[in-house]
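Retry 2 of 3 after timeout on previous attempt. Resubmitting structure tokens to design endpoint.
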């Protein structure tokens, strides 16, 4: 009898534990889709959301006052994930904010050794900014500067991704809050990147891992 107990502990129990955790990985491997058919920036600019995993945010025309938000995102998200081939940042600004955007990018570059080529600034008419923002599912509005502190994850098929669990729906992430970025956004970006890496491996496509 002892022999069978020992065999169970050595062989059966590890298998059960493995299956349990494997099931958990499958259940948590995908970030929920909150909204399909997000309006692409490619309608208005050379920067496209299609076939990219994009972090989009609306800086508005008060970029100088949003430098802290941009720094939070740069330090916690961009620097950590920019080496993923299909990852990008898209900062949406109204026409007239070009000088402020250039100054911000220079400050971000001077404070880090990170390649900033995947941090895109695009400049649009205000009605185009409103159209893109309104295509998102969100519980906040643009401010009078056509900006918002909240940032959003858009996948390669122009679907908005976020959280939808017992705590409610999390449409976007507050760039003002280091806690929100650390506790939620970092994990969610990890999940969606892992999701696509897994899909590539299943299809026999190799990409450089992070």
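Retry 2 succeeded. Sequence:
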């Amino acid at each position: 009898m002892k022999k069978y107990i020992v065999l169970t502990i050595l062989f059966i129990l590890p298998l059960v534990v493995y299956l349990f955790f494997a099931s958990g990985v499958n259940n948590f491997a995908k970030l929920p889709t909150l909204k399909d058919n997000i309006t692409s920036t490619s309608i208005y600019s050379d920067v496209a959301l299609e076939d990219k995993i994009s972090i989009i945010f609306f800086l508005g025309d008060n970029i100088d006052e949003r430098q802290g938000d941009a720094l939070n995102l740069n330090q916690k998200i961009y620097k950590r994930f920019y080496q993923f081939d299909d990852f990008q940042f898209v900062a949406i600004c109204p026409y007239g904010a070009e000088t402020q955007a250039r100054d911000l990018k220079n400050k971000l570059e001077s404070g880090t050794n990170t390649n900033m080529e995947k941090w895109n600034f695009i400049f649009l008419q205000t009605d185009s900014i409103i159209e893109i923002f309104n295509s998102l599912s969100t519980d906040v509005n643009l401010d009078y500067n056509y900006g918002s502190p909240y940032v959003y994850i858009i996948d390669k098929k122009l679907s908005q991704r976020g959280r939808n669990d017992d705590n409610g729906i999390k449409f976007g992430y507050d760039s003002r809050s280091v806690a929100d970025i650390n506790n939620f956004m970092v994990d969610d970006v990890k999940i969606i990147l892992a999701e696509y890496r897994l899909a590539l491996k299943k299809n026999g496509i190799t990409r450089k891992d992070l």
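Attempt log closed. The chain is about 40% helix and 20% strand.
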